[in-house]
UniProtKB/TrEMBL annotation:
SUPFAM superfamilies: Macro domain-like, Zn-dependent exopeptidases
InterPro entries the record matches: Leucine_aapep/pepB (IPR011356), Macro_dom-like (IPR043472), Peptidase_M17_C (IPR000819), Peptidase_M17_N_1 (IPR048816)
GO MF annotations in UniProt: manganese ion binding; metalloaminopeptidase activity
Gene Ontology BP terms: proteolysis
PANTHER family (UniProt xref): LEUCINE AMINOPEPTIDASE-RELATED, PEPTIDASE B
CDD domains documented for this protein: Peptidase_M17
Protein name stated in the entry: Leucyl aminopeptidase
Species of provenance: Pararhodobacter aggregans
Amino acid sequence: MRQSLATFAPADAPSVPLHAISADGLATWLDQQPERVRTWLNATGFSAAAGETLCVPDVAGEVSMAVFGLGGAKARARRRMALGAARKKLPRGSYHLAGGFDVEELPEQALGWLLAGYSFDRFRHRSADELPLAMLKAPAGIDAGRVSILAAAEWLTRDLINTPASQMGPEELETTLLALAEEFGAHVSVTYGDDLLQENFPLIHAVGRASDRIPRLLDLRWGDSGPRITLVGKGVCFDTGGLDIKPAASMGLMKKDMGGAATVMGLAMMIMALGWKVRLRLLIPAVENAISGSAMRPGDVLTARNGLTVEVNNTDAEGRLVLADALALACEESPDALICMATLTGAARVALGPDLPPFYTDDEDLALALSDGAAVEADPLWRMPFHAPYESLIEPGIADLDNAPGGGMAGSITAALFLRRFVTPGTRFAHFDIYGWQPKDEPGRPKGGQGQAARAVLWALPEVLGPGIEGGA
């Protein structure tokens, strides 16, 4: 029942027309309607305000049409996936869009509708009557299969982030990845516990060794031809801060600290489901940053996989450590594109807020493609610089690198510069400092776990690697 809400209504199902109407176009639209429709909407005070939704009865009292307000020009400019707001306000049944959007807007609006059907119900008992069952037929002119794949992948990402850490540790993250691999015929290898030291992943081991939940590196491979695309996601399944323990207010959302891993898993699902002609690799260092006698200490100096030494000046800056080993591994086979996603810094939120993730890249073609993809896919991003003068901030003096420069400034940039030290120069690389959480309900984006940047990356990669990588679902 639940997963069916991430798909479109059958094309042959009886359906009710759903009219999307702007506030400035309401009068013209009403002039074209039968008198009973005009009378009903005038009597109910329908003004086509943003998100306003109303059903219009026929002479027998049955729903003959539904109307949905888009608001004025200012409201439309501020709202993406506006149609998602209608889904939970409409009664059960099937609907079809009967105007209101330009053709190029339809994929975004259809995706917003599907994403609005999401709710995290794992621990909540709900009857069938409580489920939102309004369904939409795929609008003509869209790639309904692609939109459905994007929705299903986002549902996966949201489920992973929303699941409490007690039920989503490194082992459960591995189990989910194994299920995804089985679905698409991918292969997964895993390096566990002390084997991380034997296989030269010392930073991943150092972060995860204090927990009784065994740290691991998850390595998925799919596809045997085409460009190499490697995705790396931060999989810190809970972050206490380590010995530099977080205050309670900062620890409350730390189940989402594996949001980077959840997002790249969703992105990998999109690529595999769409049948791209690529050699896909997905690397997830899955750990819990806990506190015990074996925890790494402030002031410890660690040697990373690529030989660089790192002074640990804050055990709460652990995400960049586990990513460092994974990025170094990724570069050993020279990928054609390397994408890193992580819920990495509070500084990114201070600079850009929860809804606008920064990304970092030295590749101008990739930067342009990501900016274009963010607009096309309604997946906003903002480019930030690898600012060379700040390199000295991540060099502590007694080691090659400092994982947590003091001073409190440029925290997202210095974290990105740190990660770049583990990427082979010349690699087409982009790092995304995402939040992974929606603070309040918005159309298509209910409060809770949230994928960010995946759709923009999906759009951008064929632009830089060539459209030939795109296959048929």
